[in-house]
TrEMBL record:
SUPFAM superfamilies: alpha/beta-Hydrolases (SSF53474)
Entry annotated with the keyword Transit peptide: no
Gene3D superfamilies (UniProt xref): 3.40.50.11320, 6.10.250.940, alpha/beta hydrolase
Biological classification of the source: Eukaryota, Viridiplantae, Streptophyta, Embryophyta, Tracheophyta
GO cellular component terms, semicolon-separated: vacuole
The protein's name in its UniProt record: Uncharacterized protein
Protein's organism: Spirodela intermedia
Length: 442
């Protein structure tokens, strides 16, 4: 998997959550409060950033960035946002490239008029340790990271973050993120006031999600008929990934993937096959053979801008951040050795358990993403709805099943939908938070 694939990890093991006071204070002298980020325009909301220690003996700490909602934050919900990779930054990708209040532009920050903190208090977590500014003083930790350990650390983080910000403890909580999801949920959910989960282009079931790539590439004219046939039969993508991460790549899979790579070429970005090129980008080589026009101007080099911005010493000082064990901040970790075979663990059944418990789940897909194409996600959500005996109540660009399971396609969006289609993504987010019907087209 390429490093900019993102994943979402959270555990809701409420049994270990200690009760936090719901009292408050105004946080006016909070040690993690950001006075101002270098180059930022004036804003009317507060920002916080810093560390939560999740293991004192190993000196392991997770970094967060928190942007309170614009206008009356006390009346608005809390959203925990998680990117992944495994190993990529929620601060660098989510906050500064997708749905946060600012985006870097040269030496300055510019306002994102479609920031999700217009609707909610946004908490971005860099997880696991080794990602972004999060760190472990014990280097041996980096070589044995998996979903279980990441989920445990995330729970400790959330519990201790609520102790640091007690006014948010009883707030409506939503969890949102992209690509790779692993959720453990304890039915004693009343300890967390969990109101919903939104999953963007998620890996719900390894084979179905990954094997939808061949049809996507073929239907978009990126691979030939003959390559589509062998990519669907001789060696499909789930088989290739499974062999690759087990260190047992077969000759046939090697040949098939060489052919697929040659035809799609390094000048097509798998995460959005329609955007223009950022020649210098580390993570985004080029973006299509024949670019389509889009309504908004998209800065396809925002990842490079973010890397430059977050590596400035004055920015790190303002964020109360430091580098530990690495010389530079990077979008995706260079030290983490994640157990990629965790990708094979299905999560669609966990989504089903959430829906059965009455927790609304929204699955949304950018329709220009070939990494986790919309066809696989739509198939899995439809299958789950049938298993749960849920009837379709709305059809079209959005499919709504009963009152707790929804699937939506965001037109013209990439794997990172709020980056490439910020206005449409915000419309979807607003409807989800408010429990309103999803728009029929967007």
């Amino acid at each position: 998997m390429r490093a900019s694939v993102v994943w979402m990890v959270l555990t809701m093991a409420a049994a270990v959550l200690q009760h936090c006071s719901s009292g408050g204070g105004d946080h006016s002298s909070h040690p993690d409060m950001i006075s101002e980020l270098p180059g930022q325009p004036p804003v009317g909301f507060r920002q916080f950033a810093g560390y939560i220690t999740v293991d004192e003996s190993k000196e392991r700490a997770l970094f967060y960035y928190f942007a309170e909602a614009e206008g009356d934050p006390l009346s608005k919900p809390l959203v925990l946002w998680l990117n992944g990779g495994p190993g990529c930054s929620s601060v660098g990708v989510g906050a500064f490239s997708e749905n946060g209040p600012f985006r870097p532009s040269g030496q300055m920050l510019v306002r994102n008029e479609y920031s999700w903190n217009r609707e909610a208090n946004m908490l971005y977590l860099e997880s696991p340790a080794g990602v972004g500014f999060s760190y472990s003083a014990d280097d041996s930790y980096y070589g044995r990271v998996d979903d279980r350990l990441t989920a445990r650390d995330n729970l400790v983080f959330l519990r201790r973050w609520f102790s640091k910000f007690p006014r948010y403890k009883d707030r409506d909580l939503f969890i949102a993120g992209e690509s790779y999801l692993m959720v453990q949920f304890n039915k004693r959910r009343n300890v967390f006031n969990l109101k919903g989960i939104a999953l963007g282009n998620p890996v719900l079931e390894f084979a179905t999600d990954f094997n939808s790539r061949a049809e996507f590439l073929w239907s978009h004219g990126l691979i030939s008929d003959s390559t589509y046939r062998v990519f669907s039969s001789a060696c499909n993508y789930s088989r290739y990934v499974s062999e690759y991460y087990r260190g047992s790549l077969s000759p046939v899979c090697s040949r098939v993937m060489t052919q697929v790579t040659r035809e799609t070429s390094r000048f097509v970005d798998k995460y959005d096959v329609t955007l223009d090129v950022c020649i210098s980008s580390v993570l985004s080589q080029s973006k299509i053979l024949a670019p389509q026009q889009v309504a908004e101007r998209i800065d396809v080099c925002v990842e490079d801008e973010t890397v430059n911005y977050l590596n400035r010493k004055d920015v790190q000082s303002a964020l109360h951040a430091r580098l530990d064990g690495v010389s530079r901040w990077s979008v995706c970790s260079s030290v983490l050795e994640y157990d990629f075979l965790n990708l094979e663990i299905p999560t669609i059944n966990v989504v089903g358990s959430l829906v059965r418990a009455g927790i609304p789940v929204l699955v949304y897909s950018g329709d220009q993403d070939s990494v986790i194409p919309l066809t696989g996600s739509r198939t899995l959500v439809q299958r789950l709805a049938e298993e749960l005996g849920m009837k379709t109540t709305v059809g079209g660009w959005t499919q709504v099943y009963g009152n707790a399971l929804s699937f939506a396609t965001i037109r013209g969006a990439s794997h990172e939908a709020p980056f490439s289609q910020p206005e449409r993504s915000l419309v979807l987010f607003q409807a989800f938070l408010r429990g309103n019907p999803l728009p029929e087209t967007f």
